[in-house]
Design goal:
This protein is mainly beta and 191 residues long. It has helices spanning 2-23, 39-44; strands at residues 26-37, 45-60, 63-76, 82-99, 102-127, 134-162, 165-176, 182-190. It has a single domain (27-190), classed as Beta Barrel (Porin).
Length: 191
């Protein structure tokens, strides 16, 4: 019962805080992501999919503050018996400049990048005495690692009013340090 009261109090507080902010130019949204890895990252990773939640606070008709967080996954390409998967959790902020329905944005932040891999190695284990063929044993190894990387992105986008919401379409070059850069295409909604 105590937990329900605390949760209900938290939700009520959040509504009371967010409602006046929304009236003053605060907006929230969500985007679906298609990520196209570039350079060395593109050599080891396939297209990625993900989602992004964001908020904006509009200072005036032409400028807004922007904050986003999300999750993206990429499947790795099998290279020489080794396969890997990648995932990223971004937290980025920036400034959005609005020109009617068209906008440009500059964002900066961090991505927590995780890599998981599995490799198979054929190890000679002997010779078949009847055929003379070499016998092999398959040894599998796996592991993972993660690191937080600096990021920035120039963004270009377009908002289309549909009823009481805006459809958001945008693209960006997402620089992530240590060769994780990619092109991101977004489509989503703004409330």
């Amino acid at each position: 019962m105590k937990h329900k009261v605390i949760l209900l109090s938290f939700l009520l507080s959040a509504i009371l805080v967010i409602n006046p902010l929304y009236a003053k130019g605060m907006h929230f949204g969500a985007n679906g992501i298609l990520s196209l890895p570039l350079g060395d990252f593109g050599d080891v990773a396939n297209k990625g999919l993900g989602g992004m939640f964001f908020g904006t606070y509009q200072f005036n008709k032409s400028m807004a503050a922007y904050l986003e967080a999300g999750y993206t996954i990429w499947s790795g390409k099998d290279i020489a018996g080794e396969s890997s998967d990648f995932s990223g959790i971004p937290i980025q902020a920036g400034i959005k400049y609005i020109f009617s329905k068209f906008y440009v944005m500059g964002i900066i932040g961090i991505w927590n990048m995780k890599v998981s891999w599995t490799s198979e190695v054929k190890i000679p284990s002997g010779i078949d005495p009847y055929t003379g063929e070499i016998k092999y044993t398959i040894k599998k190894e796996s592991g993972s690692g993660s690191d937080t990387k600096f990021s920035f992105a120039p963004v270009i986008g377009y908002e289309i009013p549909v009823g009481g919401i805006n459809l958001n379409i945008s693209g960006r070059y997402q620089y992530i340090s240590d060769k994780f850069s990619n092109i991101i295409l977004n489509i989503g909604v703004i409330f």
